[in-house]
């Protein structure tokens, strides 16, 4: 799916959050320049996952639960990437918020039933996918692998589908056989603080800008709206009177972004944080768009003038980060060199 469709979806979400069309367009433009843009151009799962996630956010942001509009993107997001499970939180959160705002029991029951159906269908599709993986790698059946694939698998110690042997595919014997968890642990060494080694310092530096942006945004939000966060943004009472509508609406997005950021810091290969956060959360673009409210970035000349002449150091740093990572990332990635 082209980047333009993604930016349109993000623009619609931003417009619904603020009603400011100019700001929403600015958010979409920053998305097109994002530091992980090469992964939205190359045949990676980030593009599809990002569209599915933004679509889920868009459909739930109006505090309604539509089975027809939600079940497809939510189901596919779970299959597309493992962190798609977090998207279930949006459906559940907005369903709970809707129930608390309604007075009639019938309306509340309608929301609850729709939510159960949406979440249930998504989990069923995910379960079917896992069963298929189990069938491929945990049972013996005939699959015509080419000699080149067999040779490559034997050379690298990989396990081929259809060839069930003693000691192969150890995840098959788990109480809850999850193939992807085994792959992450066995082949990629993904785990709590497993990436904290001195040789990984350059990768930590690569991830530092986006982690810093997310942490700065989230901690500032919590500090300014502490009592609202304690109530998880569910109670609309005297506590919320001094909070703007946008600040109220942004709470679940902040919580989602903070969780992903801490997960990146503690568990994943840290250099992946740039594309993981850029494809999963609109906070990066909302945060950065606020610095460009009083100026434009609609042409190369305007971008050049901001980088070279603008008095705002924040605006210069943001554009240098976005464009620099997009440029060098494209060059390095296209030449099969390590990047985020």
By secondary-structure content and strand pairing, the structural class works out as mainly alpha
- Rg, alpha carbons: 22 Å
- pLDDT averaged over residues: 87
The tally of strands reads 0
Estimate the helix proportion, in percent.
55-70%
How is the main sheet built?
A: none
In short, what is this structure?
This protein is an all-alpha fold. 66% of the residues lie in helices and 0% in strands.
Secondary-structure topology with pairs:
Elements: H1 3-18, H2 21-32, H3 38-41, H4 46-60, H5 67-80, H6 88-101, H7 105-138, H8 147-156, H9 179-186, H10 201-224, H11 226-230, H12 245-249, H13 251-266, H14 273-280, H15 283-289, H16 300-309, H17 313-334
Helix pairs in contact: 1-2, 1-4, 2-15, 4-5, 4-14, 5-7, 6-7, 10-13, 10-14, 13-14, 16-17
Write up what this structure looks like.
By secondary structure, the protein is mainly alpha-helical. It is 66% helix and 0% strand. The radius of gyration is 22 Å and the shape is globular. The relative contact order is 0.12.
For the structure shown, list the relevant keywords.
globular
